[in-house]
Amino acid sequence: MLIIVLVQDTADDGLTSAYDKIFAALAHPTRRQILVTVYFEGGAMGAGDIARMFEHAWPTISRHLQVLDEAGLVTTEKHGRTRTYRLNRERIDLVTDWLTWFGRDEKESHD
């Protein structure tokens, strides 16, 4: 059934585009590590706090955060000069649901 849904969604590019952005964002190990870091820090962190956890220059971390935001994996709240990045569970659930589909047995996946 999922294959039919994905083919239908290709026409409007909604869900397919979302998956493309998400998996492109997750392709980089630093972005995956940022998500893990934010998760273990309670699901939200300031940009400066995130940057201090990595050895990359600020522009590099800023770009990674922008890619995660554009993919919808994090949301951004601005408080004065501080940006807080929060995990977007709904978007992460898309990944989980997509990967879970491959864990189903073959008979189930065709129903």
TrEMBL record:
SUPFAM superfamilies linked to this entry: Winged helix' DNA-binding domain
One Pfam family it belongs to: HTH_5
Domain HTH arsR-type: 11-107
CDD domains associated with the record: HTH_ARSR
Transmembrane segment boundaries: none
One GO molecular-function entry: DNA binding
Keyword Transcription regulation included in the entry's annotation: yes
Assigned keywords, A-Z: DNA-binding, Transcription, Transcription regulation
NCBIfam families documented for this protein: HTH_metalloreg
Name used for this protein in its record: Helix-turn-helix protein
Species in which this protein is naturally found: Actinocrispum wychmicini
Organismal lineage: Bacteria, Bacillati, Actinomycetota, Actinomycetes, Pseudonocardiales
